[in-house]
């Protein structure tokens, strides 16, 4: 279960980026596709392959990884073109520490509620 949550957590950061870029339609398409594949795949896997809790969690791990990768690709393709390569700047994070911690807390609560 921890691995499944670990693979899902970064997708919430990418979701926040897509929302900030006003890409709600793209995000909704991703959510519909992932939710459909998650549910139908779970039914098929538990019915025809193995009805065990381990199989359930392996499916969750796989679909969470796919969701995170898909969301990341869509976000990176949606970002405006730049002449400089992206880099992490700790000074900006320090200035926005309280805001960033609030968003991280909301992300964590959202992730727990979805799981």
Key terms for this structure?
mainly alpha; 0% strand; single chain; 5 helices; 115 residues
Care to give the gist of this entry?
The protein is an all-alpha fold and 115 residues long. It contains five helices and no strands.
Word description of this protein:
With 115 residues, the chain is an all-alpha fold. The protein has one domain. The chain contains 5 helices and no strands. The longest helix is centred in the middle third of the chain and has 26 residues, at 53-78. The termini are close together. The mean pLDDT is 90.
Write the layout of secondary structure elements.
Blueprint: H1 2-20, H2 24-48, H3 53-78, H4 90-95, H5 97-114
- Note the gap between the termini: 9 Å
Helix content, binned percent:
over 70%
What's the number of extended β-strand segments? 0
Number of alpha- plus pi-helical segments: 5
Structural class: mainly alpha
Helix-strand string: HHHHH
Query: Could you say how many structural domains there are in total?
Result: 1
Compute the average pLDDT: 90
């Amino acid at each position: 279960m921890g691995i499944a949550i670990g693979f899902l957590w970064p997708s919430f950061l990418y979701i926040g980026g897509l929302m900030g870029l006003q890409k709600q339609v793209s995000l909704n398409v991703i959510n519909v596709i992932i939710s459909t594949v998650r549910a139908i795949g779970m039914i098929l896997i538990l019915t025809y392959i193995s009805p065990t809790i381990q199989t359930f969690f392996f499916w969750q791990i796989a679909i969470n990884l796919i969701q995170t990768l898909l969301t990341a690709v869509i976000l990176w393709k949606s970002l405006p073109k730049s002449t400089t390569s992206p880099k992490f700047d700790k000074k900006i994070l320090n200035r926005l520490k309280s805001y960033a911690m609030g968003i991280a807390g909301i992300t964590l609560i959202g992730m727990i509620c979805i799981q």
